[in-house]
Amino acid sequence: MKPMSDTVTTVEKKTPEKPEAFSARPVRSNGREREVEVEAEPVGPPKTVIREYFESAVVTVIMALFGMTFIVQAVKVPTASMENTITVGDHLLVNKFIFAPGPTFPLLPQREINRADIIVFKYPGNPNDPERDKQEDNIPFKVNYVKRVIGLPGDTVEVKGLKVYVNGQPLPEHIMVVENVNDKGPLKIIEDTPRQGNELYDVYYLKDRVEEARLGHDRVEVDFHYAVGGKPFKVPANSYFVMDSRAWGFVPRELVIGRAMFVYWSYDETKPFNSPLDFFTNTRWNRTGTMVK
């Protein structure tokens, strides 16, 4: 009889492996992100310093040309026709966008030209003085002029003595009596008449002109060709009547560049320039940043 064996046969159960959990992004079991190797994109040759400067310069030039064409423009005042509102040697920034031709949009800073606006425009020429138009500093359609808008299209304008009438009503202008000390320097104010509440801007008359007007004499200056001598002038369609020191005429709408905004630099041309330091001493720092109005 065989002895019973102490050997016990056991069956090992194999524990099924748990399926790997789905992860929306590669993470370790501790929750930290795993490092993922990403195939690097091919890189071209490195840019040289010259190339970087060249690209920056091209972008700057393009932005400057865009701004000068559609937004702002810098102009210099060469004559004393707008003294003392604008002084010889003033350098102005002109807002070209505000009077941009075509339809206006409510969200954009555009509007029509209003009375009393100071505008910059291309000089259209003066048929009453053709010889003057031949001079280098007064070439038609090339030289920029700066004047104040007095009459709008369809208005009737007339100048009588010290008063300007638009559609039969006097303009509310504040009169200043002045003397001309220097052709390139500011006018010297010798009398500041009391200002009324509705006077929007100043006009400057020479002392002898004011004295004649107060005596009842209506003197007509040589440069007066429109709206004087008892002959009111009607502003043509798509044009604006502009004046400076009580003279000038009308400007077609297509020649208007924009509205004068402010003086970004002013240089006193009455003073000599002998050294680079004169640039600082001759600069009118008190006019820098002043608004034109």
Topology:
Elements: H1 49-70, E1 72-76, E2 90-95, E3 118-122, E4 144-151, E5 156-160, E6 163-166, E7 169-170, E8 173-179, E9 188-192, E10 201-206, H2 207-214, E11 233-234, E12 239-243, E13 250-252, E14 256-266, H3 278-282
Parallel strand pairs: 8-10
Antiparallel strand pairs: 1-2, 2-14, 3-4, 3-14, 4-12, 5-6, 5-11, 6-7, 8-9, 12-13
- What proportion of the residues form beta strands (DSSP E)? 25-35%
Global mean pLDDT: 78
What percentage of residues falls in helices of 4 or more residues? 10-25%
| Overall number of domains | 1
Content-based structural category: alpha+beta
Tally of separate helices: 3
Task: Name the helix and strand elements from N-terminus to C-terminus, one letter apiece.
Answer: HEEEEEEEEEEHEEEEH
Name given to the CATH homologous superfamily: Umud Fragment, subunit A
Largest sheet: 7 strands, antiparallel
Oligomeric state of the chains? single chain
**Architecture per CATH nomenclature, i.e. the level-2 architecture:** Ribbon
Strand order, largest beta sheet: 1-2-14-3-4-12-13
CATH fold group: Umud Fragment, subunit A
Beta strands, count? 14
| CATH top level assignment | Mainly Beta
Cα gyration radius (Å): 38 Å
Shape: globular
Low-confidence stretches: 1-11
